[in-house]
Description:
Chain B: It is a multi-pass membrane protein. The complex is a heterodimer. Chain A is mainly α.
Amino acid sequence: MSTTVKEFQPATRTGRLANYLDTRVGMSPIVKEFGRKIFPDHWTFMFGEVALYSFVILLLSGAFLTFFFDPSMAHVTYEGAYAPLYGIEMSAAYASTLDISFDIRGGLFMRQLHHWAALLFVAAMSVHMLRVFFTGAFRRPRELNWVVGCGLLMMGWAAGFTGYSLPDEVLSGNGLRIIDGILKSLPLVGSHLSMFLFGGEFPGYSIVGRLYALHIMIVPAVILLLIVIHLFMVVTHKHTQYPGPGRTENNVVGYPVGPVYAAKAGGFFFIVFGVLALMAGTVTINAMWNYGPYDPSPVQAGTQPDWYIGWFDGALRLMPGQIGDFSFLWNIPMPWGSSVSLPMGVLFPLMPVGILILGMIAWPWIEAWVTKDNREHHILDRPRNAPGRTAAGVAGITWYCVMWAAASSDLIATHFQVSLNDVLYLLRVLFFLGPVIAFIVTRRICLSLQRKDRELVLHGHESGVVEMSPEGGFSERHRNLTDYEMYRLVSFESPRPIPATPGRKGKVSTMEKVRASVSRLFFEERVEPVTREELVEAQLDGHHGHGAVEGDQGNQLGH
Amino acid sequence: MGEHGNEGTQRPSDALEHAGGDAPRYAIDNPGLPPHRPRLADEDPKAAKRAERQVSVLFLISIIGTVVFFIGYFGVGQIGNNESFDVIFLQNLLLGVGTALAMLGIGVGIVHWAKTLMPDHEMVESRHEVRTEADRQVAAGMMQDIIDETQIKRRPLLRNTLIGAAALAPLPFIAVFRDLDNTDNFSDKETENFGVERLRHTMWAEGVRLVRDPTGAPIKASDVTVGSAVHVIPEGLNDLHHGKLNEKAKAVVLLMRLDPAKVKITPGRENWNVDGIFAYSKVCTHVGCPIALYEQHTHHLLCPCHQSTFDLTQECKVIFGPASHALPQLPIAVNDEGFLVAQSDFHEPVGPVYWERG
Lengths: 559, 358
């Protein structure tokens, strides 16, 4: 061979170690691939990181807790340090939770760190998904990663609920009792499902151990797997970026992993850890020593589930069990004589929950169906430039928030000293009207912001300098935007409604009509991006000294 | 006006075809990355030195935080000596603040380092197709070869029997979960008190005394005053060693006394109360929370979980909230010694509705 590559001779100890690893597991290709990989930088891209770091902290603090927690419902007599419960009969699970808090140094800190991290984990995932939704980052080719994200969110709820129920005190026991009631209400299989879950009748002796297996093994394993898939797909797709100068559909603009991005992201892990530690040290969460061991008889008023469970609970509260004398308990006679029961008061509330979850999962396809847009998108939308989607998203959030608020209906009533019933009546009205109002208002806000952008592009920034012309007229001097500022404001599309088109047989299907009407709802009123002609015209206008003209020519509304 | 000129030509389908981006799409062409603006530390060595010192101070704060943690861990409170809780909360505070400083010192320090000293030139990388057409053809060819080599298409017998086997093989792993509820195996099938039927029965039976929850003290009719509400369990519940909570979850009862004239009593239930003392199941018929709140002026019972409200004067009919049927009433009487006893079990299942309830 004429060309030989001279083999690398490490000179330092670190070099020798790196070379040892490289020659065994192949580090060079990994470094080559990722060492200088470019990641776009924007503060809204941090939420996913917060979620990931919270999960790491959950694993660390959770591992500590498993060493001390005893997931058994066997009766024990509490003899630990917490005097008010000394000598009381309780389950081993509750006793060991008390031990963690009062007899194990740092146990209370770890418990609170774990609980706060769990709340932050779900919160960060939720906000991350809102960012992805409102910027259209779920569009092709990232639809499947959106679904993986939905899976992560739901597994986050599951992890939270299974963990929340482990201490086996009054609060979590009543939470489980609600789960038992919901399970039992399911048609045909409900009572059996409940008995399978609880190992017989509620509460039984099995549930804590079973939830523990789910909580520390199955659910986290699924979450880990989904995270791996999620990040793998992020690498495959490369990150999206916001529109702006220099950014195109074909490039990624940002900072290299080494050193800048790694430093910022790595440092950010410690910041998230620090903030959670501060909360765990200073803000009590789930003071379960106040509640006492689970007993089916007592209950506290004004109790609240963890925040992400709230909307399920609120949906249950919103539903009237009876309207007048009409009961939503339907007893349906069967041909063989007996009758079966359908508690629609419990089953109906599962519908908005299911609609929101399924709508969220299916949204990438719903939107592509409405817009007939199947192109790849790597440049994000500014939310105002997709008024239909933004309005639909805010409508969904509003619906969610009405249910969420309903879970606190009693606290709202006591805090604001209004009638509990009135709070619920109002929320029932908002349940139906809120999303509609939110849709309309949000779309108007988006259109107004788009018009503001047009104004800026065509007439520049208001300078605050008022000039008097020789003729005596007053006008404000405007400062033109730079190309960099301007490009961000003009580089978007404003799709038009796509009318229903006949299918292959020349017939317009009902689905196509539905699609066309949704398309009209989304895009009928629209604001065009500024065109070249308009820009030239506006600049000419400006040169003629009419820079201050507040023309409405830019405000083109649809037909 | 400019956009009107466009309106005729730019139909939606046209808009989609702009994806390639060859034609000028926007009012101005992409001006490219803005010029880099140097930071203070890029040009002024003094500023860079200052940033270096700031970062090291942050790292030092982290070290102090770790020390604070150890002070909290070893220096404050020996648990197990029945220290007051203030000590435990002080220790928790020190652990939290110490960890926070330790972590934030490192985190803020590194981020500050990255922002002030590491280069902040934006870099550009090009995207690649998720898959190239060439790759796809190779992959499709490979898959075709693999399938051909298995001969599964040529030999449908193999395919069909494999499908059958694969469909059946997982079933044992589903069936094996049947004993998630194995309590049936121990219950008494003679009394129909097994399976779902168990939900119909509680510990209440003729002559079982009503006792206070949790003390177990029996109750005389005269003990129950107008306006009061007594939390009740069946006598003998506290003596159960196994399944006490299961029985209690079904058998808890709320006892209230009011003027019997105020209550509209259904025919057939006239003798279910004792001089205006009524006993109702305490388990909400919505999803089963204990109904713990009694408002004596209005005679309303309120479930604190979902605010179902039941009116005692209408035999605990639902007047508000998500529950859809009345609380079951426990028929009670007075025994020879003057204690309150049950006449029978509830006449319908207590608690949340289930499919087989009928």
